[in-house]
Amino acid sequence: MKTAKDYMEAANEAVPTMDSADAIAIHAEGEGTFIDVRDSADIAESGTIKGANRVPRGMIEFNADPAMEDLFNPIFKDKSAPYYLVCGAGGQAALAGKTMTEMGFTNVTNIGGFPGWKDAGGPTES
């Protein structure tokens, strides 16, 4: 039987991480697609990365699969493009990133939690 720790270890092995300062520099260059995988209530409470797409972790499979015509989100059209995932503390981003890699995405990075982004001076929005 798997535990939450098992899932997190597997996700952290599958998805590279990046610190906030490096992610902020990439964001400033306008590179990649930034995705906040928290639910809307968490984002409403704290804000998110400026310009980040909002795709809750529970919707990744549906939004990233073109076969799900009514739910597919075109931000996922290029499986080789760089995607940068953020959440509250890094766990949900790691798990969502592992799902994306299992779906064939080849350039997914966990940039950790939004508080780290905000504390490092990254641009935010409500």
Automatic annotation (TrEMBL):
Origin superkingdom: Bacteria
Domain Rhodanese positions: 28-126
Claim: Transmembrane is one of the keywords in the record: no
Q: Which UniProt keywords apply?
A: Transferase
Q: Write out the GO MF terms.
A: transferase activity
* SUPFAM superfamilies listed in its UniProt record: Rhodanese/Cell cycle control phosphatase
Which protein, by its recorded name, is this? Rhodanese-related sulfurtransferase
